[in-house]
Specification:
Layout lengths: L3 E5 L8 H10 L4 E6 L6 H11 L2 E7 L15 H21 L3 E4 L16 H29 L2 E4 L13 H11 L4 E6 H7 L3 H7 L4 E6 L14 H10 L5 E4 L8 H4 L6 H22 L7
Parallel strand pairs: 1-2, 1-8, 2-3, 3-4, 4-5, 5-6, 6-7, 7-8
Helix pairs in contact: 1-2, 3-4, 4-5, 7-8, 8-10
């Protein structure tokens, strides 16, 4: 079965959703990953756009910004964790209404590179890390019970050490999944982050056999596939080796740190189309080659 191709719409900032759908339709994508901001969308309008352009909402990208704390699943403050768990439950409801089966979860806030209190002593740091790990497991365990009832998967995403401190590698993600022990908790990987943290990206993918449900894709410089140094043939070989049938969700960004800023800068407008087109063309060419000469189609 061919991979399903998607794009995470958070990379387009505040772009009108129909403009995004038009782009995805134009370049042959199967669906979209919607930003996990349920209040931002009218579900009926999203459903109408899906029908109009023949696309599906394939996943929801949870948003966990720091230092606002509101969605920090590992926070020592109980009221913060309670709000974070409720946010995940709201995302589950949102996903169910749109028939999206996967919600991406970062177990500690993005931008939070130290435990709360910012301990600098090694012993205190390790103690704080262990405490926040256990709190994240507890929070996700509670959210997972709700996700199970809703028929939705929560997919833990390891991201690099410069953006969060708790879960950075595939191995750590797998360990957290084992500790939570819920059929509703799986793994999401991101090739850009893996390029920083993993010794061998393809081997890390193979280690995720049976639990990997979604993959974010951008090159080493977080631009289009083929514009950096990641070996995407090896990446796709790893996926084929484990029988992966999930999404390849593109997440390339222009050379600025804030996609909302980039969306307002005319000098980058052409990149949205260029990156979407180039990435899917190159990935489908590699996929076709590995599957035995199948057409790009």
């Amino acid at each position: 079965m061919a991979f399903k191709y998607s794009i995470s719409n958070w990379i387009y900032g505040d772009e009108d959703l129909e403009t995004t759908f038009q782009r995805l339709k134009r370049y042959g994508y199967d669906g979209v990953e919607l930003m996990g901001e349920p209040a931002r969308y009218d579900v009926g309008e999203v459903e109408a756009l899906c029908e109009k352009y023949g696309l599906k909402v394939l996943s929801i990208a949870g948003m966990y910004p720091w230092p606002t704390e509101e969605r920090d699943l590992s926070n020592p403050r109980e009221e913060v964790r309670r709000r974070a768990v409720q946010y995940l439950k709201d995302c589950c409801d949102f996903a169910v209404r749109l028939e999206a089966g996967v919600i991406i979860v970062v177990p500690s806030a993005v931008g939070k590179v130290l435990p709360v209190g910012e301990p600098r002593d090694e012993e205190e740091w390790l103690k704080a890390y262990d405490k926040e790990w256990k709190l994240a497991v507890e929070s996700l365990g509670e959210a997972a019970l709700y996700a199970e009832k809703q028929g939705v998967v929560l997919a833990i995403e390891p991201i690099n050490r410069y953006e969060t401190f708790l879960v950075n590698t595939c191995e750590q993600g797998l360990r957290m999944i084992q500790e939570i022990r819920s059929p509703a908790v799986k793994l999401h990987l991101d090739v850009f982050h893996m390029n920083i943290e993993e010794r061998d990206v393809a081997q890390a993918i193979r280690a995720a056999k049976g639990v990997l449900v979604n993959l974010h894709v951008a090159d080493s410089n977080r631009t289009a596939v083929g514009e950096g140094h990641i070996d995407f043939k090896a990446v796709l070989e790893g996926l084929l080796d484990i029988g992966y049938e999930g999404m390849l969700t593109l997440e390339p960004l222009p050379p600025v740190p804030d996609p909302y800023m980039a969306a307002r800068m005319k000098r980058f407008m052409h990149l949205w189309d260029d990156y979407a087109r180039i990435s899917i063309e190159r990935l489908k060419d590699i996929e076709g080659e590995l599957r035995g000469g199948e057409s790009r189609g």
